[in-house]
Amino acid sequence: MLQKRKMNKRSQVTGAIFLLLFFALVFRFYELQIADAAFYEQRAEAMYNTEKVLPAKRGTIYDRNGETLATETTAYTVVAILSPSVKTRVEDVAGTASALAPYLNMSETDIQNLLSLEGRYQVELRPGGWKVDRETMKQIEALELQGITFREESKRTYPNQNFASHVLGFLNNDEEPVMGLESFMDESLKGEHGKISFKRDAESNRLPNGLESIVQPQNGDHIYLTLDERIQLYVEQALDKAQEEYNPEKMTVVVSRPDTGEILAMASRPSFNPNQYRDITNYMNHAITSTFEPGSTFKIITLAAAIEEGLYNGNETYLSGVYKLPGGEVPDHQRQGWGYISFLEGVQKSSNVAFTILGYERMQKEVFYKYIYDFGFGELTGIDLPNEKRGFVKSPHNIPPLDLANMTFGQGVTVTAIQQIAAINAIANGGTLLKPYIIDRVVDAEEGNLIQQNQREVVEEQIISKETAKEVAQILETVITDGTGKNFYLDGYAVAGKTGTAQKVGDDGRYVRNKHIHNFIGFAPMDNPELSVYVLVDAPEVEHYSYGGFVVSEIFKHIMQNSLQYLSIKPQIEEVSIQANEGKKASKVEAYTGVSLMAAKQRAEEDGYKVIVIGNGTSVQQQLPAAGAASYPNETLYLITNDSGESTVPDMSGWTLRNVKDWASIVGVELSVLGRGYVVTQSQQADSIIRSGDTMSIVLEPKFSSDSDEFFEDELENTEGEGQEGSENDDTEQMTNDEEQNLIVE
After folding, report:
1. Which of 271, 290, 296, 553 is catalytic?
2. DSSP string, 474-509
3. 33 burial class (0-12, 13-18, 19+ CB within 10 angstroms)?
């Protein structure tokens, strides 16, 4: 009986347990199927459904001719497998770090620290192993390091290194645009990512027919710039050479087409390689963000205003030297002046007094300010680049007389390089202020359809008349041929332009002694301008400030001459020669051999030839060009008197290098050449005897003025004495705006 009771009790307990288990099962079923059904359904979807991003390809940036300036390329991130569950993991930490360090530009210690991280399946070897190029990847792959693999991804690449880097900007490895066009045009360039959804099994394998949806990415638009890769190259070369030789604090060059406003080249120094953006220390595009006192290049505005208002007469004379006015005086850069000179000479010599008379004494203040604003100063040009600055123009309200006078020659006003190029374009194109632009068009990457097409945009149709613009251009040409810009002279091309030198403003708003900003703005050919070029060099390391103008001229001439030749703009000298002989038949060279040298020379000169005698004989044995050859008058004719190996040295003063080389080739003399331009010194005196095989040295220089104050370009502005003090008596309006003043010295 007792045994039976025990069995019943066990049965009851067992039944109760099963009953509880049943109710627990029912409750759990209720939770799974009803109460928490939505939660578990989402977890299941997350486990078996996968969504991946299909990245859009960023648009390419091209120059005007379709040359690639920025593009997407394949990159590789170095990955180390660390998990103990993987046989091919990294085991030799020290050896692997030692092998990788030279390729990743990382220390062995930093790599070892990454390879020693615990609890990681794998680790990326950043920063050095992040998005390396294919060549580096192949080099690392050849090491056959255990546990080292690669993940393929995309990277923004700039194939020309520091080429137009401030214009392009860059994209960092996180695909964030940092500056330049990469930032300004990011919405167009980046496109829209797509996505793909599919089902997978518990082991993350994609299920057959598991594709649910796919949204294709929309690749970014392509952007074509107005930049010309070849002209940009000339700019980069000239700046690199100047940087190496003179180490200025900064430089800026802008090249434009005067008739459209297109920017063909733009560069600044210091520069950077956007492919190595971690090394960048200078993010400023000085052509649009740095403001500075322009100095005498601003005199172009005063001159144009005076001509337009009928206040300029080039033949009228005035007393140069010093101009006294309330609050101080304005001296010329040659303080004693040049006596009474014409206003044309005043422009050519860059006389501050001349421009003070024209802009301050004769012109109403409101009229002068009107032209400053009409030429675009104090306002944004609207160029399609980020962070453009306005510059600074003093308020006309209660401006002191000395400050107003100083503005007439470019002191007490700050400008940007892009404003300067827009202003000179208005002179070159006949008086129309154009908006400068650097983006030519935006094109759809998929279909090639045109999305945006920029073109010539007029800001102000006629800020000065065409007649005034032409007269200003002609006067600016004389600055090059007869004035302070002689070292900007180009063989064969008529250049119109203006030099400028201004003392640099320091952080405290006062002028810094012995530091100057040298700049030049000009266009060519003068009669039919194809290119305008602005060059600024800030504080080059030269023996005397006046030599800074030479640095600027070397940059300008390299850019302008090479660019004109690249654009197939024929030298004007050749064109004049062709026009002079147009419609005429070439005459045949007469025979001058077999007669006395005196008779042959006299007859040849009468026939219109420039005669050079080779040899020291008394009769002509040979001639070049030969008798019967086609020739025009004014060409050079060589009369060779003997073959004794001796010749009389001519006076080569003013000869070009080509002339000297022709002569040396005929007489068999070796040349040693120093400098560029025209012969100023020759080692063998004129009329001395030289023998075939001898060496002769010549020194060439550009057509400089011999005046010490103008040896290069130079017209240092009124920055000392009373003029300087007077220019600082309005601290509020002068240059105390930190943002405006410090940009040029950052």
Report:
1. 296
2. HHHHHHHHHSTTGGG-BTTB--EEEEEEEEEE-TTS
3. exposed
Q: Looking at residue 453, what is its pLDDT?
A: 96
Distance of CA 596 to the CA centre of its chain: 60
The answer to whether the bond into 127 is cis (omega within 30° of 0) is: yes
The rounded distance, in Å, linking the Cα atoms of 695 and 672 is 7
Phi, psi angles (nearest 5°) of residue 62: -120, 160
The helix or strand, by DSSP H or E, that contains position 184, with its residue range, turns out to be: helix 180-184
Q: Which amino acid is at 140?
A: I
| Residue 18 DSSP class | H
Alpha helices in 544-702 (DSSP H): 548-566, 572-581, 597-606, 657-667
For residue 575, what are its two tokens? 């064109």
Ranges under pLDDT 70 in the chain: 1-9, 13, 26-50, 198-213, 572-586, 616, 630-634, 643-644, 658, 675-677, 702-746
How large is the C-alpha radius of gyration of the chain? 38
Report residue 556 CA to chain centroid gap.
Answer: 12
Residue 709's nearest CA partner among 472, 499, 510 is: 499
Nearest alpha carbon to residue 515 among 487, 544, 555: 544
Question: Which of 36, 35, 112, 34 is closest to 80 using CA atoms?
Answer: 112
Q: What is the DSSP letter of 262?
A: B
pLDDT of residue 33: 66
Give the distance, in angstroms, between the CA of residue 260 and the centroid of all CA atoms in the same chain: 19
Strand partners of residue 503: 516
Does residue 434 contact residue 472 with C-beta atoms inside 8 Å?
Answer: no
CB count in 10 Å sphere of residue 210: 15
Taking alpha carbons only, the member of 125, 134, 132 closest to residue 90 is 125
Q: How far apart are CA 29 and CA 637, in angstroms?
A: 114
pLDDT at 393: 96
Q: What share of the chain is helix, strand, coil (3-state, %, to 5)?
A: 35, 25, 40
**DSSP 3-state of 255:** strand
Q: Do the beta carbons of residue 68 and residue 60 sit within 8 Å?
A: yes
* DSSP state letters, 527-579: SS--EEEEEEEES---SSGGGHHHHHHHHHHHHHHHHHHHTT---HHHHHHHH
The full 3-state SS of 93-138, as one line of letters, equals HHHHHHHHHHHHCCCHHHHHHHHCCCCCCEEECCCCCCCECHHHHH
Q: How far is CA 157 from the centre of its chain?
A: 19
Place of tokens 């005929």: 666
Phi, psi angles (nearest 5°) of residue 617: -80, 180
155 and 164 in contact (C-beta within 8 Å)? no
Q: What is the C-alpha to C-alpha distance for residues 125 and 123, in angstroms, rounded to an integer? A: 6
299: which 2 tokens?
């005199």
Which pLDDT score, from 0 to 100, does residue 40 have?
Answer: 53
- At 594 the pLDDT is 81
**What is the pTM (predicted TM-score) of this model?**
0.71
Question: What distances in angstroms separate CA 19 from CA 2, 11, 22, 23, one per listed residue?
Answer: 25, 12, 5, 6
Asked if residue 377 lies in contact with residue 419, where contact means CB atoms within 8 angstroms, the answer is yes
Are the C-beta atoms of 694 and 678 separated by less than 8 Å?
A: no
296 is catalytic: yes
What is the amino acid identity at position 420? Answer: Q
**Cα-Cα-Cα-Cα dihedral sign, residues 87, 90, 94, 95:** positive
What's CA 401's distance to the chain center, in Å? 38
Q: What is the DSSP string of 356-412?
A: HIIIIISS-HHHHHHHHHHTTTTS----SSSS----B---STT--HHHHHHHTTT-S
User: Nearest CA to 259 among 11, 433, 376?
Assistant: 433
